[in-house]
Amino acid sequence: MSKLVFIDTEVSITEKRIEDMGGLKDNGDYIHTNKITDFIKFIEDAEYIVGHNIIHHDLVFIENETKRKYYDKAIDTLYLSPLLFPKKPYHKLVKNDKLEDEDPNNPLHDAENAMHLFNDEINAFYKLPEELKVIYFSLLKDQIEFTNFFVYNNFSTNSSDLEKLIFSYFQGKICQNVKVKDIITRHPVELAYALAIINVDDDESITPAWVIRQYPIVSNVLHKLRNVPCNKGCSYCNERLDIHKALKMYFGYDSFRTFDGKPLQEQAVQAAIENKSMLVVFPTGGGKSLTFQLPALMNARNTKGLTVVISPLQSLMKDQVDNLEQRSITQAVTINGMLDPIERKEAIRRLFEGEAHILYIAPEALRSRTIEKILLSRNISRIVIDEAHCFSAWGQDFRVDYLYIAEFIKRIKEQKGIKEDIPVSCFTATAKPNVINDIVQYFKDNLHIDLELFTTKSTRKNLQFHVIESTSKNKYKHLRSLLDYKKCPTIVYVSRTRTAENLALHLVRDNYKARYFHGQMENYEKVEVQELFMRGDIDIIVATSAFGMGVDKKDVGMVIHYDISDSLENYLQEAGRAGRDLSINADCFILFDKDDLNKHFYLLNQTKVTHQEIQQIWKAIKDLTKIQSQVSLSAYELAQEAGWNDHIKDVTNRVTTAIAALEDAGFVQRGQNTPRVFATSITVKNMIEVRRIIETSKSFDDDKEKMAALRIMNHLIGERSRKRPMLDEIDEPDSRVDYIAEILGYERDFVIRIIQRLREVNILADDKDIKVYFNELHTPHKAKSILSDFEKLEKLMVDYLDEDKTVINLKSLNELALEAGISNSSVKSIRRLLNFWAIKKIIKQEPARFSPNHLRVTLLREKDTLLSEVNKRIEIARVITEYLEDKYKQNNNISKIAFSLLDILKEYERRMALYDLPSCTSDDVENAILYLSKIGALKIEGGFLVIYNPLSIERLEKDNKARYRLDHYRKLQCHYEQKKQMVHIVGEYAKLLLEDYKAALKFVNDYFTLEFNTFVRKYFRSDKLEAINRNMTPEKFQELFGVLSPQQLKIINDKESQYIVVAAGPGSGKTKILVHKLASLLYLEDIKHEQLLMLTFSRASATEFKKRLIKLIKSSAYYVEIKTFYSYCFDLLGRVGNIENGKDTIIEACRRIENDEVDPSRITKSVLVIDEAQDMDENEYRLIKALINKNETMRVIAVGDDDQNIFSFRGSSSQYMQELLKYDNAKKYELVTNYRSKANLVEFTNKFVQTIDNRLKKTPIFAYQSDNGQIEVIKYKNEIIVPALKYHIKEGFIDSTCILTRTNHEALQVLGILLKNGISCKLIRSSDRYQLINLQEIRFFLEELRNLNPNPKIDMADWQEAKRKLKVNYSDSDNYELCLQILNDFEVVSGNDMYYSDLEMFIKESKEEDFLSKGQGQVVISTIHKSKGWEFNHVILILDNYDISDDESKRALYVGLTRAKERITIHYNGEYFEKNHYDQYKNVKNLNYKYDNNDYAPSDFLLYHLSLEDIHLGSVHYTQDLIKTYKSGNLLNVDADGILDNTKNKYICKFSKKFKTEIDKYIPLGYVPTRAKVKNIVYWYDKDKDKEYLVLLPEIELTKQSSTI
Questions:
Q1: By percentage, how much of the chain surpasses pLDDT 90?
Q2: Signed CA dihedral, 170, 173, 174, 176: sign only
Q3: What is the pLDDT of residues 1317-1326, one digit of tens each?
Q4: Distance set, CA 381 to CA 291, 299, 301, 578 (Å)
Q5: Which residues pair with 425 in a beta bridge?
Q6: How many Cβ atoms sit within 10 Å of the Cβ of residue 1557?
Q7: Closest Cα partner for 1108 from 1078, 1088, 1080, 1067?
Q8: Which of 222, 892, 1184, 1302 is most buried, with most CB under 10 Å away?
Q9: Segment (H or E) for 95
């Protein structure tokens, strides 16, 4: 009978059955079988069954299948391993709870490994000190996992006093007053494992992750034994838990910092050592970092615990890690987006292996599975939360990511199975009472943790605060004066990225040593600027708020806020960057311009996540989870589903904020991130190689796949130089699969398939692309020089160190290096090298207690081995630097160079063939790159990833009707309200500082000590209290809305009604209220540009609104979408506009919206504004309804005047305004104050409008002006045009006069008569004769612009050049001014971003009359329909046979009448204004009637403007060259058949039959064509010939002989 049998099984977890078995006996017999009966027969006669993790795994499955139990025979090597091999690197065969095996899934090999491990465990056990063997036996003898091991080894003992033995053996290693007896009784296994780790007393040896999972109390036992100071005091606690000794050892300080004489820092550190949770409020520079770093280092030393520091600032994380390394403390790491792949891999390895004990991460990283795995594998001693004000909606930087922290802690505790609280430390520099209360309440409510408070009111005494009133015009002058007044290191803070760049460049031009710094810079650029400033190479940093965190420059003597901060907290924190050396006096200046506050309000409004946006995300999630409750897609894809605009910045952060808000409301639950990385490198150099490989590869199914592969690679190669995406960071790189799919127009799964094909053909791989950057100060040559110095230094240090523990004096070692000729040696460089050695486990280092310049160093390698390792690493590093130098030269000294591990391996192999070099692996290359980075020879950035990073979302709220309500949004809303108030408060502080310095200091003190509402009531009384809740300064509010009437303000202030219908009478300020409502939506409400849509009925209206909005709110107006119904629908359909089929386009757009066939981002809106809503027809209202149905919370604001609906002939009706009022939460407003017209004119038109039926307005129009104008009604017997004009020519025309007629023909006759009589006049004429896009001058400009630059975006230089050429060629054309007006209007409404397609649409939608300005002294002539929207001092109506038998005609006449401001003159031949017949007119003041019963002949002068239908178009085919010689305004010859050239021998064009019929009516009456000129030359498309031709459209005069007028 064999005594021992070693076994292992392979189990199918899914099927829960054994699939393969292996066994090995101590006599050499073995078995490898899949038959359970044979296996049982093999093991049955053994005395002991030995294996790794067999008790709770293999034997369980054997029992399930055979119903036989073998636990009484079992010896499990898994449970013995942490006891007997606790010291890192543990046992070579053990990795966590698994056996290492070169042949995985071979149970016979695993059985053999178990045998070797068991034999080693026996040997290790017998080598233990007798006392420790007794302790282990006493604790574990009755545990099933250990009993048989002791029996097999015949080990037995009887310890009468186990507690005493433990205290004796572990004297000085554990607290002598801990209640060990209780632990022995309740947790014997956990105590044994804890003592095993303690016995090793090695910083890097940690409890294996599986032990923490299975025995979570181990961490608690360790803590009780070594991390709870006893009250009585003992040798261990006095030494290892003395915070003063630790302070000296780690940081070299003799004492802690005090605040106003109070030892708050010491108290906070002691509280941490006592395992308390706390909230610490210390000022900027007050030592917050040390307050949590010192306990973290002590915990690491005592319990191997990991301290997790959660911070929102990536740069601060890196700075803190670097600062610790400068003190030779290498136990801290960070995982964030600033790391390159090798640093990231190294950080993760060190965390898993217990080499790092402080982890810095962002709150978003808590969603990372990698981070979760790390924390589950480690003993977490404390969670530290920096910038803890982010928890509070009352804080200046509330972040919903922070609200997940408690849930994450609960998740970790649950998965680890621990009940004890994980201590929490919260830190912030600025916290108001409300913020403190929110933080405390958060942890009490969510984790039942009470936070102990450590707060100080201490202020910096060496800072002086000043305010200088300034404006945008003189700020720079003030800045220069300050810089010249005090020459010292200075930080200048601005609010915008562009301002930082422009201001810094301006200073450099003026010979100041300045650089800019902002968050949009590349990481390497930020590091470079920081280093230049810290070294003193530059004096001035012009920065956004992104600069300063963690930058501890002591001698900053001045901080200047070029733009004031957005809160008092941020201002004081930024100002606190000055005077960190308390021995110097520093100055803090604000260059105060009140308008700067409005910039903050605007930015706040554009960056916040609104209630509507969260509703849109919720609607998208509901739509996506109709079938299953879980969905997995990226933030970008979810934003698209929600209909968000593609150009929204920071989309990932906004989406996750919305999801967090929904999670907080209980609607959804977000899971851990599940990123998929498809590649980390591109193996080819350029697209030529890509194309060659793809074209010859058989991996792609067809040409479509090949084309897609080429497009994807072209995109990836272009994006490789950009910022690298990280798995656990919020970022928006274009190498994410969802972005690639969207940009290139493919389905996501198709993109993934093509990327996998690209991997198959080795175009994409996992070779870790890396970027290195150089500059004029840091060149490849410099890198080689640094490497050379460190090579000498490293070899010197190898000789210098003893293999025994050595105390090194860094200064003495540096002197030795300098004497050895290493001229660039320094204490800093020696620290760098020692830190690298410590990270790579070449040495163990710890601070010596007596001096920060002394280190206790233990060499962990034999010198010969180490020297060989150094030589190999240096050789690889030399290959890397020389390779980069070659690439640097080949690329013309380009600052950034990308390379991969594969590149270096290939280069190294090439050199191996030439030189005698040792072999090299990818790990060796990674090691060399890390070395070059750590010694400062290379500045490395992240490389390249192709990644898909979906969010995992589970829907909890199943009710499809459930909506995310305002009460759900209250927490976020409260935060945004606070942010708004904070801007007002910092502005008030600046004003107060101008007037009373002491009062300003009291203001600050009250802000941070009083309850917030109490503070507000104290400093913002009466009118100020209302102003503090607005999104703008009082001055800006007065500027924007102070001119509005109370009724208009009611509309502005209505934020609750979902549907607002404004019935606006003539002259009531309809355009004004709309423009101001748009401004209100942007500034006073939560509406962002992309969520706002305004629809109009004409390009002229859209342009007018855009102009007025630009005038009112400046550049913000450019981003507001104001479109005609037609152009909006063209956009939806992705078509180039053609007004001729506009109605069909609207119908098609409606159909597609209703069928979900349009891009959601184009129809997802929060507010829809409709101008001239009375003009909507059936199809336009259908479009509005379709948009309403797709946006359940969208607000609609419709403004119009039902009395001015004059287009019913095309189907328009004011009934659609009434339809909107039928919706729930709809409200009607009436604007009935007429600001335009005199009192009697309003009374007169009121009398007339009452004759119209079915009016929406119920209230009569009221005149704002009290004085009266003039009204004349002149009635004629028959012909009225000639006598009417005689009357006014004789009287004379006043400035701002308009003559209105019923028809275009009448308007032309009026124009001709006035021109013949020398009256300056202008005709507002319909452009039905031609389209502006076909005008010769316009075509010339467009073609020139296209020739200069074919790109979609118009370059301003090209624009100006095209305009210059237009002037050269057409300045003598009558249409030149019209063209200029068109182009100028487009410039105004487009701003700096002009696109050719937008220009084409602008022109296509425009009409000639849109651009005709009213010249001073000119009489304007128009039809009544064309006069809508205009106003004149004097309106003359010529109503020849005007019939008002229907409401349409009455409304048209009402429009004409209401254009008048001061005087109306009516010439008519009807009865409807007769006061003798209509009593309503009898009491109208200054209403004069005249009667002219004379007979008048028609005018002897007729004028025609010909259209395309008036020309015989077949005649123009042969006169193209002749037409090209003419321009608008040129005189022509004319006869009854057509237009002749100057010789009168050749027709330029002939009249059509239709026009000849028209003039033939007048020829018999004595009219003859007497004069003609070119009115327009236009392009006409001949469908039959498929070609465009120029057509000359003339102006023709017909004169009757002996004409008298």
A1: 59
A2: positive
A3: 999 999 987 6
A4: 15, 7, 11, 35
A5: 278, 384
A6: 10
A7: 1078
A8: 222
A9: strand 94-95
